[in-house]
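Dear support,

We are seeing what looks like truncated structure output for some complexes. This example has four components. We would appreciate it if you could run it in full and send us the complete token output so we can diff it against ours.
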Amino acid sequence: MFFGEYSYKVDEKGRIPLPPNFRAQLKDGLVLAKGMGEKCIAVYSIAEWRRLSEKLAEKALTPANLRRLNRAIFGTAFSASFQGQGRIKLPDPLRTYAGIGDTVIVVGANNRVEIWSEDGWKPEITSAEEQASQIIESGV
Amino acid sequence: MFFGEYSYKVDEKGRIPLPPNFRAQLKDGLVLAKGMGEKCIAVYSIAEWRRLSEKLAEKALTPANLRRLNRAIFGTAFSASFQGQGRIKLPDPLRTYAGIGDTVIVVGANNRVEIWSEDGWKPEITSAEEQASQIIESGV
DNA sequence: TAGCATTGTGGGGAGAAGTGGGGAATTAGG
DNA sequence: CCTAATTCCCCACTTCTCCCCACAATGCTA
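Here is the complete output from our reference environment:
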């Protein structure tokens, strides 16, 4: 389970660290993918990613659908691992997709980790908070 | 299992490299075919190709159908292998079919690899992503 | 308060991988 | 049988990746 919000610098080689307790949960390997629908990078553990992709594949009704789905899911995913002191390299296609410059916001989101650009994160979190408080007001 | 999205240049001799990762999985030989339904080149391992063609043959209901199918599938397929530093030569017919100029996008799509022209890939992936996020919205 | 451990940040260097091109061997066509 | 074109093996250069080490800042401990 992933928690919290952290800010890191992207160094000249495109690397970022992850919070130490995220590392522990991801030590068996991780998968980087496009955040579906949002302009961010999604990080999954191997197990979680497999579970997710299988579940998605079940939803494809036709072979053509399945091909496109595989393209969207696998084509945008990169497996990665920690190098040296626990940093990962952000693949260029994903970095461009998420509009990441030299600072990232790393966010724990329950079953996955999300990596946002500074500019992408601010509007996202404010509207998400708004929505959350509405849901809470309606009774939890 | 094939992952990720990579961009490569086609050199003057019509060769492209494949990601080291993919090479290892295809070292026993590979088959190039037209992407069924899409304007791209599909790359299969020998084993996967055999599995696929057997499956297709089962679906052919009449001998005439089977002949046509065989023509369409085997007639346009090329077996290839890695030469020198791990590059493959793109057969001219397939190259024209996929509209490939001097840059390709190599995409891992689970059980196969796809080779796209730059111009063909962009619209395909955007609509594929749209479709995927719709499926996600409908509840995973 | 002093010292130690952990963690973020920067960078050097060896090796791998992408790119370009020469030349021998094989094939096709006249 | 000879010539031309294509294929494929090899070599060379450049770029990038990844492993390593170092330093600074922070927080904990004694």
